[in-house]
Amino acid sequence: MENMDGPRVTECERCPALVESRSRIVNGTGPEDAALLIVGEAPGEREDAEGEPFVGRSGAQLDEKLRDHGIDREAVRITNCVRCRPPENRDPSKKELENCRGYLEREIELIDPDLIMTVGKVPTEHLLERDVAVTKEAGDVVEHRIGDAPRKILVSVHPAAMLYDRSQEETFDATVEEAAALIGAGGGDQSRLDSF
Ligand code: URA
Q1: Count of alpha carbons within 13 Å of 34, Cβ hemisphere only?
Q2: Ligand 1: distance of its center to the CA of 44 in Å?
Q3: CATH class of 4-183
Q4: What is the pLDDT of residues 62-105, one digit of tens each?
Q5: Which residue in 8, 14, 90, 122 is deepest, having the highest Cβ count within 10 Å?
């Protein structure tokens, strides 16, 4: 795809406000054959500075929960709907999400994960293409076509929600536990995804 080298975007100037606010394009990290792909919203300040998704405070929450449930972060692919930091960490606009959609679809196609976990309202609604009450649907696995293929999407709250609302910690914890069971992480049973 134009502007891409495998799953990495090499250059892009489609969103004038983001070109202005970013220091760099933040591509996904992790193996290109990962079973689990985690999709967040957009890079924040730390992600923009370091060029990697989820390396700031919410990344620390995410890492802790992955570790608790026997998922090695190094074995997971982690990316965002939008690859450039929005000004003042505002939500990406519909237009910005659409501008970046082809890159995400291409990354999903190349990684071909067994399971996609969308963390937070923005990535969940973006990939499911409908309104979603993420706290209600957290833990559900929904089949939805992305590009040419049906994908299994595990709905999750955003790890940063735990920082502001402790009751969300249980929800996030249970969802990561579900992800671990589904992909067969931590030396447990074989993947349960075939039964979906
Ligand atoms: N929040 C996100 O959604 N993505 C990141 O990369 C960091 C924080």
Answers
A1: 24
A2: 6
A3: alpha beta
A4: 999 999 999 999 999 999 999 999 999 899 999 999 999 999 99
A5: 122
Q: What is the CB neighbour count within 10 angstroms for residue 8?
A: 15
Instruction: Look at residue 9 and tell me whether its pLDDT is greater than 70.
Output: yes
pLDDT at 1 over 90: no
Please state, as a whole number, how many other Cβ atoms lie within 10 Å of the Cβ of residue 67: 12
Check residue 115 and give its pLDDT.
98
Question: What are the two backbone dihedrals, phi and then psi, of residue 157, each rounded to the nearest 5 degrees?
Answer: -75, 165
Q: Which atom of ligand 1 is nearest to the CA of 158?
A: 3
Q: Whose CA is nearest to atom 7 of ligand 1?
A: 54
Q: Are strands 77-80 and 36-40 parallel, antiparallel or unpaired?
A: parallel
- Ligand 1 atom closest to residue 52's alpha carbon, by position in its atom list: 6
**Ligand 1 center to 186 CA (angstroms):** 25
Mean pLDDT of the chain: 95
- Interatomic CA distance for residues 152 and 113, integer angstroms: 9
Report domain extents, the chain: 4-183
43 CA distance to ligand 1 middle (Å): 5
List all residues whose CB is within 6 A of at least one atom of ligand 1. 40-44, 47, 53-54, 56, 58, 80
